[in-house]
Amino acid sequence: MRFTSDQHLDGVRERAFTLGEVPGILWTPETAPAPLILLGHPGDLHKTHPRLVARARHCAAEGFASATIELPWSGDRPRSAAAEQARADLRQALAAGEPATPEVIDRLVLPLVDQAVPEWQATLDALLALPEIGGPVGYAGGIISLGVRLAVVEPRISAALLFAGSFVPRALFEEARQVTIPLLVLLQWDDEGNDRQMALDLFDALGSAEKTLHANMGGHTGVPWFEGDDGNRFFARHLKGVVRP
């Protein structure tokens, strides 16, 4: 891991880094060592940076460090012709008012998950070696299929907050039955361009004994502000053993 920048943002230290050819960002609070929350996102760190900083500050207010990495084929990373074609096919179907086919969803999502999960795991190796990161680890947000796979294969993740706002390949429904960690799932009821029933079916498939679904009215970007507070309480409970009212 090589740090490429270092700045302070109202009590939160922000450091950009690269791990191999994968760019990422680490935010740490003033207190250390701190439990870590991995911040998922839909892609392109440049475009999502303002929202990620807001989420990182919210995490730091609870005493959590947070970190994220660029997804494959996003931002400044090399593109995938196969992924671009799958994305174009999905957009064409939705524009025509047709449902997204399982074949298109598989082509779009599975290669991304297959490449991104090992990159997240390598990042976690590097982050947990830092003295300011103490563990345990949570995962929050991003593409839900990626969060499900990480919850299955990465034993260092103790709890996850998942955003039910993306298409899910058929194979991930079977993987979801293997998830055992505590989960909080957020669903925007009127999420444009996504399949509400698919999100509900995935929640039903998740194997965790403790899983909670928060469904709110509104579109994809309309997640209510108070869900950030609920997310902090969820992680405080499972990463720190602290119960907030």
Describe this structure in words.
The chain has 245 residues and is α/β, with parallel strands linked by helices. It has one domain: Alpha/Beta hydrolase fold, catalytic domain (Rossmann fold). Helices cover 41% and strands 26% of the residues. The protein has helices at 45-61, 81-95, 102-128, 144-153, 170-176, 196-205, 226-240, and strands spanning 2-9, 12-19, 22-28, 34-40, 65-69, 133-141, 157-163, 183-188, 211-216. Strand 4, helix 1 and strand 5 (65-69) form a beta-alpha-beta unit. Helix 2 (81-95) crosses helix 3 (102-128) and helix 3 (102-128) crosses helix 4 (144-153).
Core attributes:
9-stranded mixed β-sheet; Rossmann fold; 245 residues; alpha/beta; globular; 41% helix; single chain
Q: Approximately how much beta-strand content do the residues carry?
A: 25-35%
Give the termini separation: 38 Å
What is the N-to-C order of secondary-structure elements (H for helix, E for strand)? EEEEHEHHEHEHEHEH
Q: What's the CATH topology name?
A: Rossmann fold
- How would a crystallographer describe the biggest sheet? 9 strands, mixed
Q: What is the residue-averaged pLDDT? A: 92
Number of strands: 9
| Class from secondary-structure proportions | alpha/beta
The helix content, as a percent range, equals 40-55%
Number of helices: 7
Number of domains: 1
Report the principal-axis shape: globular
Name of the top-level CATH class: Alpha Beta
Q: Which blocks of ≥5 consecutive residues have pLDDT under 50?
A: none
